[in-house]
Specification:
Length: 257
């Protein structure tokens, strides 16, 4: 991946008036986001708020109104946005003979995976896995990985094409506490050392408070966005989440001070 040598000079991603309707039902309406390189945005909200729909619209998987822009302000030219994506879950059949190398190589190369391993590609894949402390998994069968191991492999796959934007749809569901901490620390490392922006859907408010730069509270539209403190102390947050949710965040803030 491209390491940042100087502070980011990009006006990276801008979501303009994005909306989604299914038949007569409005799922998202007038969503506006402005995301810079090197930033970590967390999208929060109750179930049914449209969070995953927003990710699908940004991936252009579903019809939507509005636009998504990526602009390199160094020369003013519009460029194609490259997106890496990690879904909430992946179904892999038992006894599937595909190895981690085969999986990543199939996305990186047009050569059939049953051919002898390409040494250069093997090292590139190992390096991508190393970022997520998963290089030892390269020859393991994908079907035999734990949830946390598979998550790290999918993250490695998502960044192999050097994306400008990494979209993560609750990728830590079912991961234990140690795995959660490692995941968020890795996100913090990525945003500080690589030329990409991160948008994460999360229900883990304590981790969002600790690691996110910018929080977006969503309920069909953007109710509030800003720093974690600005959002979590807002009346909009109080109208969506319970007192217990806010108390857990306050405890996290106290622990960090």
């Amino acid at each position: 991946m491209r390491k940042i040598i100087s502070p980011c000079g990009f006006h990276c991603i801008k979501v303009n008036h994005l909306g989604v309707r299914f038949n007569e039902q409005t799922v998202l309406e007038d969503v506006n986001l402005h995301v810079h390189c090197g930033s970590f945005h967390a999208i929060i909200g109750k179930n049914g708020a449209g969070k995953s729909t927003l990710i699908r619209a940004m991936l252009d998987d579903i019809p939507h109104t509005g636009s998504i822009e990526f602009k390199d302000t160094k020369d003013g030219k519009m460029q194609r946005l490259k997106i890496g994506y990690v879904p909430q879950s992946v179904n892999i059949e038992k006894n599937t003979p595909v190895s981690v190398y085969d999986l990543l190589a199939s996305y990186e190369s047009r050569c059939p995976v049953f051919l002898p391993k390409n040494r250069r590609l093997y090292e590139k894949i190992r390096e991508s896995l190393r970022i997520f402390e998963a290089e030892e998994l390269i020859d393991r069968q994908v079907c035999n990985l734990s949830g946390g191991q598979l998550q790290r492999v999918l993250l490695s796959l998502a960044i192999m094409d050097e994306p400008n934007l990494l979209l993560l749809d609750e990728p830590v569901s079912g991961i234990d506490q140690n795995g959660m901490e490692r995941f968020y620390k890795t996100m913090d490392y990525l945003k500080k050392h690589y030329d990409l922006a991160i948008i994460l859907i999360s229900h883990d408010l304590e981790y969002v408070a600790k690691y996110a730069d910018h929080v977006v509270l969503l309920d069909q539209t953007v109710l509030k966005q800003g720093t974690p403190r600005e959002v979590f102390e807002s009346k909009e947050f109080a109208s969506v989440f319970s007192v217990g949710d806010k108390d857990s965040w306050i405890r996290e803030e106290r622990d960090n001070d």
